[in-house]
Prior knowledge:
Elements: E1 3-10, H1 20-30, E2 36-40, H2 45-51, E3 54-63, E4 72-75, H3 77-82, H4 94-104, E5 112-119, H5 132-152
Parallel strand pairs: 1-2, 1-3, 3-5
Antiparallel strand pairs: 4-5
Helix pairs in contact: 1-5, 2-4
Amino acid sequence: xxxxxxxxxxxxxxxxxxxxxxxxxxxxxxxxxxxxxxxxxxxxxxxxxxxxxxxxxxxxxxxxxxxxxxxxxxxxxxxxxxxxxxxxxxxxxxxxxxxxxxxxxxxxxxxxxxxxxxxxxxxxxxxxxxxxxxxxxxxxxxxxxxxxxxxxx
Length: 153
C-alpha cells in the first residue's frame, strides 16, 4: 500500500545557502506536518529511493541558475532532466535520479512530484547562516509546503 506524502530537503547543512532544503525540512518537522520528512545530502539515487512508495513527493533544493538570490522556482522532473545548468558529468543529477526511478520502478514512483528550487546567493562559505535573501525564501517555501500538504489531505 502506497504511503501518502513525503517532503525531501536536499543540501549540505554546513554550506551557507546550500543548506536551504535541509532548513525547510527542519522547520516543517517542528510543525509536525501531516507528511513524512527526509533530509538527503546529495541528489543521487538516494532521492529516488526516498520517494518510492509514496503517492506524492515534494522536493526542496538550492540551485544556482542565474536568477536573483532567493528566487523560488517550481519545476517538473522533465524541466530538471533537460536543464543543462543542472548537469554534472561526474555525478548523477536530481532529474536523472527521478527519471531512472520512473523507468525502473514506474509502479512505485509518485504520481505527483513537486520540486521547489531556491536560488542561492553564496554556497562556498562554510557557515550555518544563510544569506537574508535565501532565509526569506525558506520561510516562503515552508508556508507553500504547509498549504500543499493541507490541500492533499
